[in-house]
Design brief:
Elements (H helix, E strand, L loop, with lengths): L13 H14 L2 E4 L4 E4 L2 H9 L4 E2 L10 H7 L10 H12 L2 H5 L2 H13 L6 E3 H6 L1 H11 L6 H13 L12 H27 L5 H7 L1 E2 L2 E2 L2 H32 L1 H9 L4 H11 L6 E5 L3 E3 L2 E3 L4 E4 L1 H4 L34 H18 E6 L4 E2 L8 E3 L1 E6 L2
Parallel strand pairs: 2-10
Antiparallel strand pairs: 1-2, 3-7, 4-14, 5-6, 7-10, 8-9, 11-14, 12-13
Helix pairs in contact: 3-10, 6-8, 6-16, 8-12, 9-10, 9-12, 10-11, 10-12, 12-14, 12-16, 14-16
């Protein structure tokens, strides 16, 4: 391995990773990291090829690490980590329950929730965006969709973190170790028991909520097992927390440092959907996604054996100058904007329509209610090697009207 080019050699702040991605796209677009034992993929075209070819580049990494019992249970429905035909069946069942019409119908309620949360901080000059708005908004939406008690929401963040980060180690890893998984297995077991209780109750007493729909939906004579419904619930919990919370935080952080752009969006709110797409490209929530080769393949001039793990740097692909003109410039009018923030092909995020709706509504509400806002104090970022965004984002705000 060339010294200084591996992930473990990089500082764990966002600016350092952006510089690393730029350097690697130009000099080592497909690179073997001997310390971590995996390959890194940095360019847009290579990323599109990998995530679009599930026959050569598998999403199923279950063989890469021995899963503790509670992770194995929830993994039965985690279809984002499956390949066809398992993935096809589960995705079709979920899409039957989570329809575009149902999602579009949520707009008035999401708008009301966003303004209720802003009302709760009305008049305060200092707010903390994540705790006050970006985190509770998608959590309330998903809790209401599933008809589960909002009073339990303090437990959800720990569960979402355990599912997404899968334990935290001192050094970066591509696939979590068994030790890391075991460190958070009690939380996963708690989550499994909680959701399985609700799922089994809805089997006996169905309603109009999402859990009841997932439990009842049928495609070609097939229904989801309890553990598969559980896995989908866990996936939606993570997707809401990770996607909407982080992307909304990233959007507000960008606009806090660019008041001219915030003013432009206030004048022309019709640009807000395009601005959300540009946030997903420029500072999206997902730095990378793993794949495993099923056969020997040549990628970026490198011969990669079967059974190797690749880390596809989505955030780097979205900054690739070969695909995006002035890629390091945030441009809410960018067109076209074929970013990979929600994936591509069969693994395109099934929750993307809901996430986009939440982000557009919340950003519009913020711009309507605040005449101005700026960073106030020390932000606390997530571990950018796993998630790009903020855990704490303090702001000083000036209220409209």
């Amino acid at each position: 391995m060339t010294a200084g080019l591996g992930l473990a050699d990089q500082r764990s702040d966002y600016a350092s990773l952006v510089r690393w991605w730029t350097r690697m796209r130009d000099s080592k677009p497909v690179h073997y990291d001997a310390e971590l034992g995996n390959w890194h993929v940095f360019r847009y075209d290579d990323a599109v090829r990998v995530i679009g070819d599930h026959e050569t580049f598998s999403s199923d990494l279950r063989s890469a690490v021995r899963q503790p019992e509670q992770f194995a249970i929830v993994a039965r429905g985690a279809f984002n980590g499956f390949d066809p035909p398992e993935h096809t069946k589960l995705r079709a069942l979920v899409r039957t329950a989570l329809t575009p019409r149902m999602i579009a119908g949520l707009a008035p309620r999401i708008t009301a929730i966003a303004h209720e949360l802003l009302d709760s901080m009305d008049g305060r000059r200092r707010v903390e965006l994540v705790g006050d708005l970006a985190y509770p908004l998608p959590l309330i939406v998903i809790a209401e969709l599933m008809n589960i008690p909002l009073a339990d929401r303090h437990r959800f963040r720990a569960w979402a973190d355990a599912l997404f980060f899968q334990g935290r180690g001192d050094k970066p890893v591509v696939v979590p170790t068994e030790e890391m998984l075991r460190s958070v297995e009690p939380l996963i077991g708690e989550m499994n028991a909680y959701f399985l209780d609700h799922i089994r109750y809805r089997r006996r007493h169905p309603g109009g909520d999402l859990i009841s729909k997932l439990a009842a939906v049928e495609v070609a004579g097939t229904r989801l097992a309890d553990e598969e419904v559980l896995g989908v619930c866990g996936f939606l919990l993570v997707a809401g927390h990770i996607t909407t919370t982080l992307v909304l935080g990233n959007a507000v952080h960008l606009l806090a440092t660019r008041p001219d752009l915030a003013a432009a969006l206030r004048r022309r709110p019709g640009l807000i959907p395009a601005a959300v797409e540009e946030v997903l490209r420029f500072r999206g929530q997902l730095p990378a996604t793993p794949r495993r080769t099923t056969r020997e393949v040549t990628l970026g001039g490198q011969v990669i054996p079967a059974g190797e793990v690749l880390l596809i740097w989505i955030a780097s692909a979205n900054r690739d100058e070969r695909q995006f003109a002035q890629a390091d410039r945030f441009d809410p009018r960018r067109e076209p904007n074929r970013h990979l923030g929600f994936g591509r092909g069969i693994h395109f995020c099934v929750g993307a329509p809901l996430a986009r709706l939440e982000q557009r509504i919340a950003l519009r509400a913020v711009l309507e209610r605040w005449d101005s806002f700026s960073l106030d104090g020390r932000v606390r970022p997530e571990d950018v090697r796993k998630a790009i965004g903020f855990r704490v984002l303090p702001l000083e705000v000036s209220w409209a009207g």
